Amino acid sequence: MNSPSTSVSRKTIITAFVLGVPAFVMVLLVYSGYHRKIDVKQWLSFPPTENPVALDKLSAQVKHGGEQHVFSLPVGRDNSTEDTDVQHVNTTNKITTTIAAPSVITMSPHCRSLLAENSHHTYGVKDIHQEFSSSSTNDPTHKIKILIWIATSPLYSGKRLPYVRDTWGGRVDKILYFSSFEDKDFPIIKLDVPEGHSFLWGKTKAAFQYVYKHHFNDFDWFVKADDDTYLIIENLRYLLSQIDPTKPVFLGHALFNGAVNTTFASGGAGYALSKSALQRFIECGIPNPHMCFQENVGREDLELATCLRKLGVEQLDSRDPLGKQRFMPFDPSVYMTGKVAPWYYGAVVHPYKEGKECCSNYAISFHYVKPELMQVLDYLIYDLRLYDVTGDGTFT
Prior knowledge:
It is built from eleven helices and 13 strands. By secondary structure, it is α/β, with parallel strands linked by helices. The relative contact order is 0.13.
């Protein structure tokens, strides 16, 4: 017969085992998940040097981690109180990020040389107040060439693409449509990627690869949009004409993902990659698992931004001089009525305002625009006129 003390000891051991083993397993899972996230999402920034040899010296520092200073337009949350009065608009934030492996050792000599060019400079938008007359023969907006590609699907292509083609799609230099299928009634380029929103990252990589292969030399800027995005091409040209496309930059509507501490450009609102940014993405990003996530699944806008930053591509502030947004991830009625999706409040980088204060009067895009609304917007923007009233090109 067991003594009371022996029985208590057995109960204690059993209790410790029952409670301890699950706790130990949970710790292992969290630890491995954390390192997986770091492996996939780690940022990599390059030093302010144009000397490829200096990158070799950095590699040892990068392997052990280190603090690098990145100078750019806003690419992270600014915890200070923001004021959208024109004299207080913040246009050059400085952020600090800690970097770790992978290092430059994982790159080919070509990519190390390519990424050493223009490293760690601030590529801000030129003085927006310098207006350009659209009637001038020297109008710089007509000198740049823009290619826009549209992500679509079998479910929506027939319902949406005709409206894109018949409205804003006819005003851009080149427009391409990509999906996982071909359409005999519409010039859709078929990609070898499974269909579905979950595979949008794979579709984005494949589409940009096609664009790079067939059209890279002919255009300065490369823009991605959805089949329910409405773009005002003239205003897009106006903004992009003030930025050097040979600099590695991208821009759109800035959002923040706290889970991976990354600022990115909303895919639905549309985002623009410079010629230099696209070259880095295709030649040195997609082929390298240390730079870009290799699977097809994933959020394309978030994955793209993560990859581009590792490649030394900076995200620019696309707001106008008054701090108003130009790329909008919702349709105009959402902003006018204040019915913004709840997730947006925790993701938007810059202050959000409802009503007419939401958006620049040189707005570039709206998302979740139904086909009928595309026609309405096209009429209001391009056909409706006010008697004896002309615009003077100022921001109000």
